[in-house]
Amino acid sequence: MVHNVQTLTSTKHSLVKLVLALHKRRAREEYKRFLIEGLPEITCAAQAHIEIEHVFCLKTAMKNVEIQSIVGRLTDAGTNLHFISRSILARLCYRDSEHNVLAIAKTFRLDLSDLPIHDDSLFLICDRIEKPGNLGAMIRSADSGGVEGVIVCNGITDILHPNTIRNSIGTVFTMPIVTTEFQPLQSWLHKQKIKVVGSSPSASTSYSSVDYTVPTAIVVGSETHGIDSEWFTFADDVVSLPQLGFAESLNAGAAAAIMIFEAHRQKDLQLRGR
User: Fold this and answer.
1) Which of these three, 106, 138, 173, is where a domain ends?
2) Each residue of 100-142: pLDDT tens digit?
3) CA 259 to each of CA 97, 145, 181, 193: distance values in angstroms, whole numbers, following the listed order
4) Contacts 24+ apart (CB under 8 A), 239-242
């Protein structure tokens, strides 16, 4: 049974205005709240124990068994459910579907000290990534490839931007993610004795020729500027991915995925004793 139900009929309602405001980073930072759109993303957030305060959907969407199940679990835990009209839903959401679900959740934050360290830990450092979609894709690849934490360095893009969440398909909630700057990150990497592998199209060393079986952090930079110049001095290795066509480089998401799965391949071979 669903509890805490309210019907919203006007775009002038304070909650509707809040949702519209939270599409902007400034409002997300001011209110310490963010939006989650889509059933898979909301399900991931709930599984990760993200505090979800409000859920919005059409009343007819509750005929969907999966929506009914997750909304029921959330309202049992104290989340407020709001039924809205199709026109309001279309205004609030990126996706125009009668089965779409939208939520307001409290912002969460991790520190470098929260990241797990093991003998073969692998981390992904996203350096100055400009596009939320790319950042989301990198987080999704990190989740798929067994990365233990994503570190957003010199963050230009908000990790809770709707496009980041969407392209991560919700793994932004299940993957430990830290936002920091270069100096504290450098100190942490040095203290934890983590090998740093930077990436650059100009590097002469191939990405597949370095050892990722020790605790390693892979650094991937923006498509426009690449990694910060300080990484060239600080990194243990700077590698490139061979380009066989006309393009000068891969996009950041693809580059991260290739390096992550090369690390996974090496670790798998080590476990097999080969």
Assistant:
1) 106
2) 999 999 999 999 999 989 889 999 999 999 999 999 999 999 9
3) 36, 10, 22, 20
4) 239/197, 239/198, 239/199, 239/200, 239/203, 239/205, 239/206, 239/207, 239/209, 239/210, 240/199, 240/200, 240/201, 240/202, 240/203, 240/204, 240/205, 240/206, 240/207, 241/199, 241/201, 241/206, 241/207, 242/206
In this structure, is the dihedral angle defined by the CA atoms of residues 87, 92, 97 and 103, taken in order, positive or negative?
Answer: negative
Question: Do 237 and 134 belong to one domain?
Answer: yes
- Size of the chain, expressed as the number of residues it contains: 274
Q: Looking at the structure, do residues 171 and 258 belong to the same domain, yes or no?
A: yes
Does residue 105 contact residue 78 with C-beta atoms inside 8 Å? no
SS3 237: strand
**CA 247 to centroid of chain Cα atoms:** 27
Residue 224: predicted pLDDT: 83
How many distinct structural domains can be found in the chain? 2
pTM over 0.85: yes
Low pLDDT (below 50) residues in the chain: none
Coil, strand or helix at 198:
strand
Helices and strands per DSSP (H, E), number in the chain? 11, 12
- Which residues in 200-227 are b (16+ Cβ under 10 Å) and which e? beebeeebeebebbebbbbbbbbbeebb
